[in-house]
């Protein structure tokens, strides 16, 4: 089967992609794409959604002609990372543009505490600010252009080293690998550094308490004892 040539390709964050195939404008995307064209999902979408699948619809000249069912493969190290973060006393929150059912399925499997689903790229920073308004210190992990505002908004922005330059430029910490368990090493290093800072402050305070009076001559012999 020959693959037809596509031209005039363009992509739209959180919406989908568009191209011209043999004179027909074809678009593939999620719920926001359907909203833009005021179109309904295919009936099979409800069944796929219940299975936690990501659903994309195909439109040709604004008509729905098909759908795609996608599923995220959860990496084993992701489970280990979430478990380790919980053991360290951290709450894990997922902010995603995926549908609620998909996000809930992934969250249930990984043990994620809170989920913000169906979030547009420009709204991710607002979700981080919402968590901060609850009095939480937020460390945001991301790798894409869409994550850059949220990385800048967070108390600590952590970019995946293999991510985009924009994300890396917006973060305060850059991971050398894409292994999510690396996030825990950042937390452990930060806490160890903080403990060492406090130890140094106590040592400095104790030294000054003892050394300053000595330097001022507290133990120096008085004039009366020398007459």
UniProtKB/TrEMBL annotation:
One cellular-component annotation, GO: membrane
Species assigned in the record: Hoyosella subflava (strain DSM 45089 / JCM 17490 / NBRC 109087 / DQS3-9A1) (Amycolicicoccus subflavus)
One BP annotation, GO: copper ion homeostasis
SUPFAM superfamilies, per database record: HAD-like
Swiss-Prot/TrEMBL keywords: Membrane, Translocase, Transmembrane, Transmembrane helix
Membrane spanning stretches: 201-220
InterPro entries for the chain: ATPase_P-typ_cyto_dom_N, HAD-like_sf, HAD_sf, P_typ_ATPase
Pfam families, A to Z: Hydrolase (PF00702)
GO MF entries: ATP binding; ATP hydrolysis activity; copper ion binding; P-type divalent copper transporter activity
Protein name: Copper/silver-translocating P-type ATPase
Lineage top rank: taxon: Bacteria
Subcellular location: Membrane
